[in-house]
Fold these 2 entries.
Entry 1:
Amino acid sequence: MTALLKLEGLTKAYPGVVANDDVSFEIRKGEVHALLGENGAGKSTLVKMIYGLVKPDRGQMEFDGVPFAPVEPRAARATGVAMVFQHFSLFEALDVAENVALGMENPPSQRELAARIREVSEAYGLPLDPHRTVGDLSAGERQRVEIIRCLLQDPKLLIMDEPTSVLTPQEVEILFQTLRKLQSEGTSILYISHKLEEIRALCDGATVLRLGKVVGRCDPREKSAAELAEMMVGSKLQPPIRDAHEPGDVVLEVSNLSQASHSAFGTALKDISFTVRAGEVLGIGGVAGNGQDELLSALSGESPAARHAVKIGGEEIGHMGPNQRRQIAVLAAPEERLGHAAAPGMSLTENALLTGAVRQGLTKNGFLKWGDTRAFAELIIKEFDVRTPGPENAARSLSGGNLQKFVIGREVLQRPEVLVVNQPTWGVDASAAAAIRQSILDLAEAGAAIVVISQDLDELMEISDRFAALNEGRMSKPQPARGLTMEEIGLMMGGAHDMEVAS
Amino acid sequence: MDLSSINPVFLIASLMVAATPILLAALGEMVVEKAGVLNLGVEGMMITGAVCGFIVAVESGSPTLGFICAALGGALLSLLFGVLTQFLLSNQVATGLGLTLFGLGLSALMGQGYIGIKAPEVFRLDIPVISDIPVLGPILFSHDLMVYLSLALVAGVWAGLKYTRAGMILRAVGENHDAAHALGYKVVRIRLMAIAFGGACAGLGGAYLSLIRVPQWTEGMTAGAGWIALALVVFASWKAGRVLLGAYLFGGITVLQLNLQAAGVAIPVEYLSMSPYLITIIVLVIISADKSRAALNAPASLGRSFHASN
Amino acid sequence: MIRLEKRPSPSRFWAAATPVLAVIATMIAGGILFAALGKNPFEAIRTIFWDPLFHESFAAYSRPQLLVKAGPLILIAIGLSMGFRAGIWNIGAEGQYIMGAIFGAGAGLAFYPSESFLIFPLMVVAGAVGGWAWAMIPAVLKTKFGTNEILVSLMLVYVAENILASVSSGLLQNPDGMGFPGSRNFGQWPAAANTEIFVNSGMHWGVVTAFIVVIFAYVMLTRHILGFQIRLTGESPRAARFAGVNPTRLILICLGLSGALAGMAGLFEVSGPAGQISIDFGSGYGFTAIIVAFLGRLNPIGILLAGLLMALTYIGGELAQLMLGLPSAAIQLFQGMLLFFLLAMDVLSNYRIRIGKTEVA
């Protein structure tokens, strides 16, 4: 097979960081090629260069034997490159057909386009109504919109950036069949992921990136997941340690919690009930947008619920606000680091005050004790190995992993009896993720009741005692995590929704 | 008091005239907001348009030229806002307020020598027979051309946003500028064009005040019309047809209270003159109380600065 | 090609330097404007910025005026800055200023001609209540129905102006005024007059209050949890909610506070420099204070300086009008330019300017 896309010595530097350093590899026609690497390894920058969103400082590309230097996505699309984004490039208030048209160079009339969307979506087993508003679609359906937008342009190369993070295991399987069908038709696919098992199942070749450099090439089918992980991370990782222990009494009890979402396209919580015991970790999985944010808000007190819906040690606290809950040691760490868990433009000291004021006694008669606050921020930085010159630096100056360590550390150091975290290791490099998971387990060890909401099933299986899944605002009955199969988990997450296998 | 002096046909005909300035300004602002930009400087752009149009019309004797220059003046001023908010990423609320204060000062300075002068006569539709048809004649066939132009603009904006690719791209930029950027659309350029369009419309609206409605130049003559246009956009939940409806309703109230003043109703003049503002507030409250609908229609990126990071 | 690069942390240096740069840029642009109007730009700039303070024959008159003009501007701007920091946009301070004056004057006149020492304090409280009540309208509508406070507070300015017109020839009209519109003159009623504390200093009770409020605001913003909550809400509303800030309470506090301060400013003005309620009492302080708030970077000390500077442009502008025939609108424009330059230069504190090759992104 001949090369479709050839990269030679691509280099791109940003102030303070070289995102890509002399990256070369090639993708053959009809190959599914994996680009493997941790968060921050430079995968995103690389594909943005291929898609014409970023211009390389040095190096060249060749597409189908012809020099290729797209100045904008339009040029890349015209050449035959299509891309499915990790964070969807969709417009919620517009309908499916309009969203598809926006990604095409010369879209046909809306009516003709609607017919073609139906046609292609049938052929690839991705049913989709062209007239529905995207804001009302599930995460899996939204991805279909993106894929169909690409397919309608008959791409020669399809770039998929972390496509499975929003899918249930069943949906992943269907997606893979669609991709294999495309491959059999001669389309090349550049598949970006850090999920090793997926890559082993799907890809013909792999290029591994670490800190912007190519550190290895291999045929992933011939390597074990552990070997791939070692190439990716550069060292052996210690899986988190936890000692078996008996959980204590029920601490957190949620019963028949129903609540509307405060955002226009959010998901309402419907009749959620569960309990968590002292020393226990309850893992809550589910595809993004199925009520995770809403559940966290209801538990943190940001959206107070009915009084009796949430109980701590038998006491009804559903109506309490965030600070009242902090008083009784119920703490939370939301998913969005910048703009929810932390204020981007404020210093780490001020961000320590953000949730620490009540439990750490950082105010007196409403006046702030800046000295104590700074000391608390410094303690978090020290205990959780947050890499920063000092607590006076703004939250947004920290890398994702470091800020996440700060956010988790801030709550853990306040000695919670109940801790609710959403996506604790999202976008965080492997070593920071391991440290965060370990701190969560240590907290459970010390007797706290912990709820971990995450879309990373591997993570949940690693640290949870029991597992449940959110699906359209409802929660499945929690099951012991040990011994659950991927298929069972997938069904708890709502199975394949309404997807079907490619014909 | 003599209420019989208020003639309903004349009332309707004159409400169309009273509504046209805010209709034009609100329509322009709606397009700007659809692109995701909140320009609170409508009042400033209107009054600048009013003074530009008036000066040019007086000096050249041509109201048409006056209107063209008013649109240019409004667009030019709006681009000041555009440069500040789109390139220098300044806060849109503050910059819009600044634009209003700046426009009021600028227009006062420009219009110094023009106070008390009368504007040249504007061409008015007057077709024999048709314009004389009772009821329909005065309402439909006896206005100045700007009234018809403003109606055509409503239809144009409605169809443009709904059916053209340019309109779809504009909506997409206002909905999610990051996604539009990722697809390769020039967010800043599209927004600048929308801002200039909004400025031109506001300028036309202002010139309509100084050349037709009043027709004279006085300092601060817009008297909040730009703000009412902003309120209209909210009232209309970003739909062109409803902007028209809102503007005519508002024009009706204005004309009615003026007629009541003239008729010598026993309500003090001050209370009648404040009524349009009070009614605007009441309408805003009613609209915003219906939270679900307001939230669904507002462009999601409204008022947020766009800065492309890598 | 010039491009912007976000700074990891906001630059403190540029935050302080931009207002100074903006003033310099405005002087240059203003000079060009004055030259275009056929005036000598250097003379005009000197007349505006230098003569009011140091001219041998005018300074004696205009120096006290500096405090008289700066007092209400600072008082109003401090209140506005609290809301602006939290993303709550009260732009109807002019209306609250007018209503404060009407309430305060009305409360005093109800006891005319009492000479009780309680009259003036009562008027101050009534003025604050008037402004507060007027600001509570947008506040309550926003918290109850989510109505846009920008539009409502602004519409209420026009309503307040009409009320002013109504009471100055009605309810509060001077019964001994031979039918002329306007209330009794407080200058001739010692118990209700806002007199100068030191003769010929311009330092009346409103100015003293403004200085005290600056100190309070500074302490609140830097040392008190409420100030932290205000800043946090402006920085990130969602993080504020997570931190336990009650948005409804914050809106009521910020709008109420700015309304009360504007109302007090109105009362001090009507009982002092203005002297009476009259149809042209509204002087635009409520709008100019918006510029003052931004020019002072929403920082109390900055607002203090910005208020003095803006007062200087008022007095200097009047002087330039008198001496050089510079139109008063030119000064208004000048003030508008100042705000624009400031907003434009603000970019420097959050972004670095890079000059280099084109970046597609």
Note: The mean pLDDT of chain C is 89.
Entry 2:
Amino acid sequence: MDYTATAWDIAQAVRAGKASARDVLEAVLERIRAVEGASVRLLAPGEDPEALHRQHPGVHAFITLTEERARRQAEAIDRRVAAGEDPGPLAGVPITVKDILTVEGVRATAGSRILYEYIAPYTATAVARLEAAGAVVLGKVNLDEFTFGSSGESTAYQPAPRNPWDLDRVPGGSSSGSAAAVAAGMGPLSVGTDTAGSIRQPAAFCGVVGLKPTYGRVSRYGLIAFASSLDTVGPITRTVTDAALALQVMAGPDRYDATAATRPVPDYLAEMHKGVRGLRIGLSPDMFRITYVDQATGELVETRIDPEIEAAVRKAADLLADLDADIVDDVPLPHLEYGIPAYFVISRVEAASNLHRYDGVKYGYRTPEPVEDFWEMYRKTRGQGFGLQPKVRILMGMYVSAAQYSQRYYERALRVRTLIRRDFERIFDPEGPYRLDVLLGPTTPTPAFRVGEVYGDTVLMQYMDQLLVAANHAGVPAIAVPAGLNRQGLPLSVQFIAPDFREDLLLRAAYAYEQAVGGPLPVPSRLD
Amino acid sequence: MTAYEPVIGLEIHIQLNTKSKIFCSCSADPWEAEPNTQICPVCTGHPGVLPVLNRVAVEKALRLALALGAEVAEVSYFARKNYFYPDLPKGYQISQYDQPLATGGALPLENGRRIRIRRLHLEEDAGKTKREGGRRFVDFNRCGVPLIELVTEPDIRSPEEAAQFLTRLRQLVRWLDVSLGHMERGHIRCDANVSVRPKGSQSLGEKTEIKNVNLIDLLRPAIEQEIQRQIQVLEAGGQIEAWTLEWDEHQRVLRKMRGKETEADYRYFREPDLLPIVVDRAWLEEVAAELPELPWEREKRFQEEYGLPEYDARVLTTERALADYFEAAVKAYGGSPKAVANLVINHILRLMNEQRLTWDDLRVTPARLAAILRLVDQGVIHKNAAKKLIPLVQERDQEPKVVVEAEGMAQMQDTAALEALCARIVEAHPEEAAKYRAGKKGLLGWFVGQVMRETRGKANPQEVQAILRRLLEG
């Protein structure tokens, strides 16, 4: 088995005793040594991350590699197989974990200086379940600081991840290292998180599959919170099958998360193969354009999405129609364009509050400078420990949740969120005018952009997530599936969105499409 | 000079006596634990943790809400109260804000006035900080201990009423097994909002808030001082400013902590990590069905059913276990409830107090107390002997009858022998006998004393008295 093997193939081989978990692991570790490039670290003041990248070009997916821990896990799996025990459905599958989820005994940085050298005392539920199913954790992968970004560039641990299809481009974010690692053959499965597209957008940029489950389908315990009412945990894989396999293991109620749904988890792999015959699949004109505020003029600007992406979506509809799906055109999503402004407000209010705990009192970074009192310790610790993105979010979150503004911004944003939710309720309503099973659309308005191209324009960066954030507001599940390469050889992606807890429908559509479009994308050869 | 009327409202935090904390499984009674030993990633706010609500805490809050006649919301929400302090590990306190668990209701005072309740909600406690040798230490043990916050309407009209409210509330929360109610351990913490207005006025004056007056004996002087201060300010033509004050225990005076301008904005918003608290009818009925008779209801019934004086009824209903004990003894005895009340109030409570006993430690069970009363009724022992017998029964954990026999405490039952003894005493003291017969009737007691000394207290004094009177007068 080499590093291009899927999670499904690895698990089947290890379970059957045809491959050892240890050999699979060594093959992937070899791959990591070949393509990872510079080992990332906290950037010193004045240091240029681009120079670090040029010195040791590579993908830079990892913050922490847990090689020895992985070897022990792999050996334990091999012993179980040898003893005739069931090693689990993910036996020997090397996985990576976005460094926003905790793994006991391993540092959890959240891509931030403020959690420097913080060692987590417990393992996130989603990760614990994957490990219990036989997965082997390779390490923690890089991300935008506290997940605040869509390119990976805002991490305090540099050089930031690169796109394996073109190292001059970003892998997307915030699950940057996750998507980059999976695309580059550094483990076929990564656990990511999605608050406004952070699983799907990097999956799209890197040509892999990214599944954002229904809010509450996968426990958030151990996910270092950004916007608690929007955060979800999900898999990034190269194939739809692997996504189904991983979700199967991760989903379900959790006594450590009151918001984790108690609804039974269906057999996703069985459901996935049922095909799309008779499924009602919708297309919305509102997903072929984005609206954003022009920073120079302050005007609302509307742009059509990249024509190659639009063509890929329409082609996907044709392929699914060929498989006897019913395509429903002109499905309206009138409140989609308000998704980002509402998200700005809601996520920042929650983020500012969630970031309060990083104060230097209990763990993580504390200013080394002398202080007069603990107020000064707070100021210096937070001032030095947080990067620009958390600071921007804290400031805005504090502002819009202040007593005198809360009504005008926060409460209003919550109402907008309800309207977006109703848009989806309407199109999925089995007695409504559209009766969709799934909605089909683009994942991102553009393919991967160049490093430095958008970073710095915090607002524009977030409008990149306009087609993604609606599913977070509504809580519904969505999946990004590769849709071939564009003329420049960059991955394209389509997105399916389904009603609450209907990941089964999502996977049916995604799997049928993946097969129809010619299978998953390969690991890019340019890296070799 | 204008006559002023104080207007007082209280904000009270009650620490619940649940086994575990409100959002994690750590012990909720960290009083005697070493600092930072009753903690986990959840209550110390580690990255990635989530709160999970302790249902028992909700149940206890419901119990108190129903006992106060408050209206329980079918759906209520948790909210985050955001502020920075080292003892608040998440940087926000999970509390309830716009939709509390219960609203309305009232607590009756002894004078019959009903102090209305504005709201009652659940929240988590913070930790403790202390400064020592120029360094600041934080103990997170108390973080996440469940609290009820109870806010009254400004219905209280004197420091005395405020103290009484707190006393009664403490009695109630113990009675309902909602809190241990140890004020010296901070199980009940009180802030008082105080204003004054010209008597007869219906409007409210500007108020000040006195923080952390956690002992009843402290609440009274603190409020009294603040009332006097406010009256002086107003009389001097000044205006009351909305200060927050704290009690300085050393100087026994109130000090200004901060003015209104530095009032914090807690930027409340609904807690996304917890589901709403849904209290359906079935749950509410279940709690209501298990609600005990309230102390003041029981106090009234003790007067009516057992003919107890108000004082006795009140004392016997200060604690539910005491009232239960009393009623069990009444039932076991079957005789006069007042006799039971006397023994309980005078001897059992004293014994428990002197020996610092809990109800679990008490070996003088209601059945044994009833047995003691029956021994008195049967004349086996004199009623004064009960005082001596009760500690012995406690000490030996034996039936009263067994103790009486072992100690030779039974009264002389042989009337002939007693008569002979009395006759001997009268003969031995002719002078005193003559004086008595000459009219100095007070000497009868002296004669009784002589006989009692001879019998070492085993004679029945009434009987002795009767015999002596007959001998001296007959």
Note: The first strand of chain A starts at residue 41 and ends at 42.
